# Entry
Amino acid sequence: MAHNKEKHSSYPDRISVPAGTTWANIYKTNYHPPYFVSPDLTGKDWADPEDISQVNNSPFFSCEGRISLDFQDRPLNPRGPTGLAGRGLLGHWGANFAADPIVTRLNPDGLLELITIKRKDCGLWALPGGMVDKGERVTATLSRELGEESSANLSFDSATPVYQGYVNDPRNTDHAWMETDAYHLHLDINQANQITLQAQDDAVDAQWLVCNQDNLQSLYANHSDLVNRAISIFEQQSNCTVLETGQVVAKEKDKYFPQALVIGRFQPLCNHHVGMLHQVVRDSGARKLLIGLGVSSEINDKNFLDFNERKDMLVPVLDQLGIDYEIKAIVDINNPPEYCAHVESFFPDMNESNTQIFTENDYTRDCFIQHGHNYRVVTPGPQSGKATQVRQFMCQSKNWQDCVPQHVADLIKQNNYIDRLKKLTQHQ
Ligand code: RP5
# Structure
């Protein structure tokens, strides 16, 4: 993900960071970003002290995995250098946790609409999210923030979790960044009619926004990704399709796809993946399962197992599914318009009418539904990020064994994959 290029009004200019720069290769560049911490943080009890040695939340927790530190023990942005050091406007060193409510309804014209607020700081339409207070449950934050910014009063106890992780927020810096928990709540007409939207607090306006792709793409930060993820889960749960215009239509009846293509990395294969594969076979009724195993050009802390090592983990699970399958290595090409053709070149029999695609990755999903393609893409569940957690547990010597099938645990131990992962993690 390229960092957000929006300049925050109170921020100094960032220095430009050449594409492909990571913390591991930054020493090859002359990287001296300006340092900025907003005077607004001074004296605020919710903000960390500026002196990092007085911060007692190390090791820094992040939904993105293990956080590396720089030579001053400051946490480093997991998505790489941003061109600006310090915390900027963010109170905490490292991850700053927010929660984002995605509240939708159908309008009388059959269009899906979403509660949005216009942010006071930048004038952009956004999800009415906000920071999680210390010790607060995320569902409580969602209700509170929605109420504070739009006056709507809703409970999120039955909402669907759709995303947990990094937000491409314009306030992010090398040492502080936003992460969020996004939950989706779809209201029926009676519930929606009880809401009167009225901007409050950090918002100058609050409105129901039609979920067409133009509107979604212009939302703040990467809020469009969060909403598209919610839409894709909503489509599966309600057996409908949301068109690019926001129009909600019933799914093509009796459309049957004989093949299911699952694209994933399985770094490593964990219990969540096993459940997902069983679900795909059960729900799709497919006769053949195609597995596209994402292969990175480099071995690193996120891609620590090679193709054959992961194939060895997958085969016993696939054998148990009782259907025909094929596994192919899909080498990363970092070229969204070409990605669909790239995958098709490994599975020459697949096309839009005989294969539906299952992926938990937003980037992959977009490659198959944008750029002129019309594949049916299904997000198997909101539980992505489980392999990240397994890797984290492996590095921290926590109980990772319970998160993976027995044969995977055996392979990990027999081949010393933990040592390899730890070494790669230390080199980050
Ligand atoms: C975004 O900033 C989050 O996704 C959330 O919507 C928001 C929280 O920050 P404030 O609105 O409280 O400034 O990164």
Q: What stands out?
A: The chain has a mean pLDDT of 92. Residues 104 and 239 are 16 Å apart (CA to CA). DSSP finds eleven helices and 16 strands in the chain. The longest helix spans residues 223-238.
